[in-house]
Write a structure and sequence with these properties.
heterodimer; A: alpha/beta; six-stranded mixed sheet; B: mainly alpha; MetI-like fold; 77% helix; flat; binds adenosine-5'-diphosphate; binds magnesium ion
């Protein structure tokens, strides 16, 4: 499944080519290439400010790449004639700060996209929504609002919100960084399950245990560039680059 | 006698224990003495009722200030009970009222038959009903139009489009700086000279809408911007369009921030309808003023004052209730 860099002949789920991103004069992404094969989990890691979030957000164009090509499931999505809303509906995204909608119940958070983007009836949407909540172990919290839930529960609702849309791929931006330590495992367990079920995922995370177990490939970023990438045993175990070694050293 | 003596002694001992460490002016005996001397001085010094000459008036003021200071020492004293502080403050107010009644030269005998001459009000009640109806119509129409306009401009302004930003910014600045009475008079009395004639009611509506929608633009924009970037990111990631995000995610949350200033603005709008008096709109104040001329008594003006209060005080309490209700789902 996992490979290093280019994979001729296959059709990757996500293909990023020569991605550059400027914020004003600030050159944040400096020509990144990445392919994510179907059913694999690609992990992005690197020091704060290295551009991981920006790169991830370019994958569903929440952030507009300044130049380069983004392909999802073979289709180029950074073009004018693309209906980006329909594309985004197929790409789930989970944020560090959960970003649940605080004025809606957990169930309404999960069904919102089904009703207003997928055009499902409310009845149908609630059925799918309850199933999604059950899948993350929160069937009994359907009617509670986010402020009444713990951080770990909120993040699992956020995962259910993405899952309900039946996405082709899930993007995670440091999903456990805002959580109290005792809640980290419940979110990681959910993500691990998704990985074994064959969900394609891109995960920004520094949870080394989780990455060793679940990641097909680890990508080390620094200063808007990819330093090295490979299977976790290699990148986390015997990294080639000094930059990766010092970074891992600081994590431990 | 014998039995009560030990308890009396212990009461005095306790009194000394509790208050003995205080300076004389913070002790109850000291305060009582001060107030007694002050009252005696007043009985001896205070002039007859009526308007006193300046030096005498100053003496009266000094006498009042003396009492005020005595009460103030109680108010700033942490060890004095709250009930005493309340009574003290009330007596300061009451004393002011008494001195005002006694020395201001107001014709108190006239208050009753001038301000409350209800016996002369026949025929006026119908005018009030008419005036109140016009006031409410003007409020409702102006509020509805300015809400739509304010919401639209507020949403547009929150997009930070450079050109829209400029024009909306100019509009907002212009009508926030323009006194309502000026724009109303200009619309009604000046525009006809260049051929633009509006009926008084619609001239008043237009002026109210222009000013209040400018304020509301800023209220809506601030509310929209109070919703964090992460919320619209999450909505966009689900595939919601910009309009859907605004309608389902941003505005419902913005309303929590918006409700207090917005309801304030609407209460002001209702009050400001009285300005339409200057362009002859037959609203509440105009009709009251007509009734004053007709009945030769200011009673209708006093009554209109109470009518505004009776309409708006419940409205203000309703807004408080709304605020409390919307505070319920604020994040912990
Ligand atoms: N919206 C933005 N506007 C300006 N600069 C930004 C914005 N978002 C991110 N940046 C900058 O881009 C760089 C990379 O940020 P980010 O992608 O969040 O890094 P990471 O997620 O690896 O910590 C940082 O220097 C950050 O300050
Ligand atoms: Mg980040």
């Amino acid at each position: 499944m996992s490979g290093t860099g280019a994979t001729g002949g296959r059709d990757p789920m996500i293909e990023m080519q020569e991605i550059h991103k400027f914020f004003g004069p600030h050159h944040v992404l400096k020509g990144l290439d990445l392919q994510v094969e179907r059913g694999t989990v690609v992990a992005l890691m690197g020091p704060s400010g290295s551009g991981k979030s920006t790169f991830l957000r370019c994958m569903n164009r929440i952030e507009e790449p300044s130049s380069g090509v983004v392909r999802i499931d073979g289709m180029r999505i950074n073009e004018l004639r693309v209906n980006i809303d329909q594309v985004r509906a197929d790409i789930g995204m989970v944020f560090q700060e959960y970003n649940l909608f605080p004025h809606l119940t957990a169930l309404a958070n999960v069904t919102l996209g089904l009703v207003h983007v997928r055009g499902r009836s409310r009845r149908e949407a609630e059925e799918v929504g309850r199933a999604a909540l059950a899948r993350v172990g929160l069937a009994d919290r359907a009617d509670q609002r986010p402020p009444e839930l713990s951080g770990g529960q909120q993040q699992r609702v956020a995962i259910a919100r993405s899952l309900a849309m039946r996405p082709k791929v899930l993007l995670f931006d440091e999903p456990t960084s805002a959580l109290d330590p005792e809640m980290v495992h419940e979110v990681l367990d959910t993500m691990r399950e998704l990985a074994t079920e064959g969900m394609t995922m891109v995960v920004v995370s520094h949870e080394l245990g989780f990455l060793r177990e679940a990641a097909s490939r680890v990508v080390m970023m620094d200063d808007g560039r990819i330093v090295e990438e490979g299977p976790p045993s290699q990148v986390l175990g015997e990294p080639e680059h000094e930059r990766t070694r010092t970074f891992l050293g600081k994590l431990l | 006698m014998n039995e009560s003596e030990p308890s009396q002694a212990s009461f005095l001992d306790r009194w000394r224990l509790r208050f003995g460490h205080l300076p004389w002016y913070r002790r109850y005996e000291g305060l009582l003495l001060v107030v007694a001397v002050w009252a005696a001085g007043g009985a001896w010094l205070l002039p007859e009722a009526g308007r006193p000459d300046l030096p005498v008036a100053l003496a009266v003021v000094a006498w009042y200030v003396a009492y005020f200071l005595a009460v103030a020492t109680v108010l700033v004293d942490r060890e004095k009970p709250t009930w005493l502080k309340r009574i003290g403050s009330l007596t300061v107010l009451a004393l002011f009222g008494w001195l005002f009644v006694r020395y201001s030269g107001t014709r108190w005998d006239r208050v009753q038959d001038q301000f409350f001459a209800f016996d002369r009000m026949d025929g006026v009640w119908a005018m009030y009903l008419q005036g109140l109806t016009v006031t409410l119509q003007l409020s409702a129409v102006a509020a509805a139009i300015s809400l739509v306009l304010g919401l639209t401009l507020g949403v547009l302004r929150s997009l930070h489009h450079p050109v829209l930003e400029l024009f909306i910014g100019l509009y907002v600045d212009f009508f926030r700086a323009m006194p309502l009475i000026v724009s109303m008079v200009v619309i009604f009395y000046a525009l006809p000279f260049i051929g633009i004639r509006l009926p008084a009611f619609w001239a008043a509506t237009l002026a109210l809408v222009l000013m209040n929608s400018a304020y509301q633009t800023e209220i809506f924009r601030a509310g929209i911007e109070s919703v964090t970037r992460g919320q619209s990111d999450a909505a966009a990631a689900l595939g919601l369009s910009g309009v859907q995000t605004m309608w389902h995610i941003v505005l419902p949350q913005a309303f929590r921030t918006i409700i207090p200033p917005l309801t304030n603005n609407l209460v002001s709008l209702v009050k400001d309808t009285a300005v339409a008096y200057v362009i002859t709109v037959p609203e509440l104040l105009t009709n009251a003023q007509h009734a004053v001329v007709w009945k030769r008594t200011p009673t209708p003006l006093i009554l209109s004052m109470f009518l505004y209060l009776a309409t708006l005080i419940p409205a203000i309490h309703f807004t408080r209730w709304l605020e409390r209700r919307s505070a319920r789902w604020v994040a912990r």
